[in-house]
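Troubleshooting log. The previous structure file for this entry was overwritten by mistake, so regenerating from the original sequence record. Sequence copied from the archived sheet and checked twice against the printout by T.R.
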Amino acid sequence: MEKIANELKSVKELEDGRIITDVQNVTKVLKSFDAIAIWDFASAAPYSSISVNGETPLDAVFFSGHKFPGGVSSPGVLIIKKYLIQATKPKRIGGGTVFFVNSSEEWFLKEVEHREEGGTADAVGAVRLAMAVKMKRAVGENTIKQLEESISKKVLEKFKAIKNLILLGPVVSENRLPVFSFLIHDPNSQLFFHHNYISVLLNDLFGIQTRAGCMCAGPYAQFLLGIDEDLSKEFVNAIQESANLDRTHLRRQAEYSQQEFLRPGFTRISFPYFFTSHQIDHILQCIQFVSEYAADFLHLYQVNCETGEWHHQNQRVFHGRRWLGHVQFTPNGLKTKPVVVQNAPDFKGCLQIARSLALESVQSLNLSKIPDGRSAISEEFRGLRWFVLPIEIAEVLAGRNVSFGVCVLNPRKYSERSSNLSKQLDNGLHLNERDSNEENACEVVCDDVICLIKCDENSKNEDTTENVGIDESEAEEVKQMEDWNKRVVVNRNVDLSREEERKLEWHVPPLEMYKKVTDVIHQLKMIKNGDKILVCLSGGKDSLSLLHILRHYQQRCNKARSTSFELGAITVDPGSAEYNPRPLIDYCRKLNIDYFYEEQDIIGAAKKTTGLRSICAFCSRMKRGRLAAAAQFHGWNVLAMGQHLDDLAESFFIAAFQNGNLSTMKAQYTTKDGALRVIRPLVMVREKSLRNFAEDKNLPVVAENCPACFNQATERHRIKQLLAQQELIFPDLFNSLRSALKPLLLVDSAHTNEMRNQAVQNIVNRT
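Regenerated output below.
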């Protein structure tokens, strides 16, 4: 171990600040202590020579095939001495690992390579990797090394001349890869520009692909950024998700933090050895342009606090996204949606356009339209913000006096041949940036059968409430689509015996939840004698729970000989391959209720509609019309929806934030034509209660994975997160919201003007 310490000490004392691993000498030291030498060539394999059986043989080597030029989607490689593998049973049993098997015993292959690789081998990937390795050998490691050193020298010389660029790590060109990590410094604030912003700007202006973040080697990256252990812990406390949040209730998949964008990092760019001198010169000019003009574009970009992602204010949807759902296999061959490809300008043209855009962006600067994100970070963590915000740059350009704090990042500066030294920049810091005002955001409210659209462009000009019913335009569209009409009807068997009735798979809801539902029903007189109620059944937890709750209420009413009503269900299938509610047909047949399954090719019609801005809006409108038309056609007069208290609270904030309205979903109302009543008996019930009931009773919840609703960071989800955060601080939050929303949810009109007047009157009467 003393020898290992001496070897590491000799590496540490290298004057150029690099860490060079001498594979053979380190292996000798390890072998002298009977240690096993396992070498990770993950990043070095595409460029360096690998000698397993050298003067001192290596015990094992592994590397990643996908990091080779041309090695995309190829497998990883493990080279290991056979004597090290002593197990006779494979780690993962699969096809090709078993020699023979009977009912009592199994025998595995003795050939270790086959025994340890169960299942079908990736033959195509292996061939691709073999070609990539062969190409590397054809070029030669020495040639690659010379080309890389030449590129590194050119890049380092250019980077020295870029005044706002801070290079991280050693500044030597020998024995290094042309991979460079850097920050762009803002001289006015003495802060940095966010690494994700720099990466996005290089992409948007020039199509240059870079990476951004803290990469794999987190401790080393923090060392380069000048972050010590204490500061690192402060960052962790700021960006980590609260341990008290209910991930199950929120259906979280990824890590969540309202302050993820505080995470420190840098931008990294790679120059492959096969790049031409002209390509490298162009990329360096583009990086220099971004370092000089990054401030001029910042006010045009918005940051998502929860992900740290930056996007241009006009880039709200991925226009170029291509869906597998657009692909059709037909007798005439493969058909897909045509892609419009614009001709890109050449290198010189890109720079000219970028310069003109920089001038235009400064002239178009409008302080009133730039969100002020300085209050988005809690006061406890404001000192950790190391990057400049759009509002700060805008105020500086407008001539205002802006106060900046001290930047917490102190990137280490390396001299060319001296030992690495830490040099502090004159820096400053201020606050955080908030997500953005999503003025054109299209918010989908997908709960139960009705897919409600909240789209601020339309909401300011049209009646875009969640009303069910058919106006003239909707009636015409529904009529036009009736030709595709498919319908399944399940009729209730009225001749069942009492014993057969008791065997039906109905479930009794928890008393507390049931009482909240019945209180609303009685208070608002939702259900009347002779009503024929159809539950809008999507297969989600909410609508399924509502069906069982209303069935229990019906049984209690029959026993008490009070309100008499009929209960059924209805589903609208929009024709999406990713959503299959057909299992509900058999389920409702087992429950012995009247059930109507309506199929309508809404998705297909949407594809044929020219100028369609939102598939979700179209689908929502069509579903509303189909529900109303089907209910009237079958002679039912009430539609029951499964929206709950969480939905109402979220809709209230969305309406206030996006549309400037004080409104939410109504507890009940009559459609414009007076033919239907719509009721929401769950308006006082929490979502988590419904989820618990559905899971406890193992209700057959149908997954809905419509590709039109795939935007992960929807406004509704952000509001859900916001309310969850606030509920940690104010445990009684939803009781307060329930009380505050009553004047709005008691509105019973489907007409916009009447609805607003009633809401105002309810508020006035309450005060």
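The chain is about 40% helix and 10% strand. Archived copy saved in two places this time.
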